[in-house]
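Need the bound structure for zinc ion, inputs here:
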Amino acid sequence: MVDPHECPVCYQVFEGAIYQCSPEGGHVVCSSCFGKLKECPVCREEFSIPKIRCRALEHQLDSQEFECQFKNEGCDYKCKRALVSSHINSCGFNPKFTNLCNLLGWNECKFLLGACSKTQIIQHFKEKHNLDMDFDAVFSLDLQSIVNSIKDDKRNGCLALLFASSSEDMSPVFLLVGKVNDSIGFVTFLCIKIWESEGISQAYKVDFSIRRKHSLLLNWTLNVYTLQEAKHTLEMCPVNIPKGILENGLFGSNKMEV
Ligand SMILES: [Zn+2]
Ligand SMILES: [Zn+2]
Ligand SMILES: [Zn+2]
Ligand SMILES: [Zn+2]
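Answer from helper R.:
Posting the output first, comments after.
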């Protein structure tokens, strides 16, 4: 069964001009597929010259509203046919994207991870959310101020953006997240890989430690989570650290490796 809204070759909604094979055949394809094909995909006749545009179907589709393909995921957006793909590429219900900002408690933020460049991501977290940066993946933070800042902001508490290497453009970007659970008095820390070079999928671990003066109080290792995992792990709090331990300690991470 052919869906009259979609090109039978690429299965995309007809967003632009529509062409038909011949006056008799009447089979239609989108302008992009028409440019790539020599013959009609249905009746195998060569396309007529000059090409025949199918204005009747264009007009019919112009009067219709199109639902987002992620309707079942919860999107109730409707638009004209020309806007369908641009919406898909910015739809918050597209499973390819993650609105990590929302998950972290910045509820107004519409920024989607999964489709943007490393530079855009860094710029976003730096300028929109005032995050600290650390370029060596070895850092030390004053825990009391972390605990305070997480509490004040009423969000999950993004702490810092981390880079495996400052010199290498393709090195992944990590986000360090701290969550305070005030009712039970625990803090949990997570590290999420928010960008990595296309085609690469490398697993990382992060080493956390809490020091007081010069002694090591606590040391633990967690997997670095991917964006897809982050949706679930943000609710999970894998390692809970009693707030009391943090009060006079220094918190840090000193290793990030495979
Ligand atoms: Zn097509
Ligand atoms: Zn045909
Ligand atoms: Zn949508
Ligand atoms: Zn944001």
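Comments: The mean pLDDT is 80. The longest helix spans residues 118-128.
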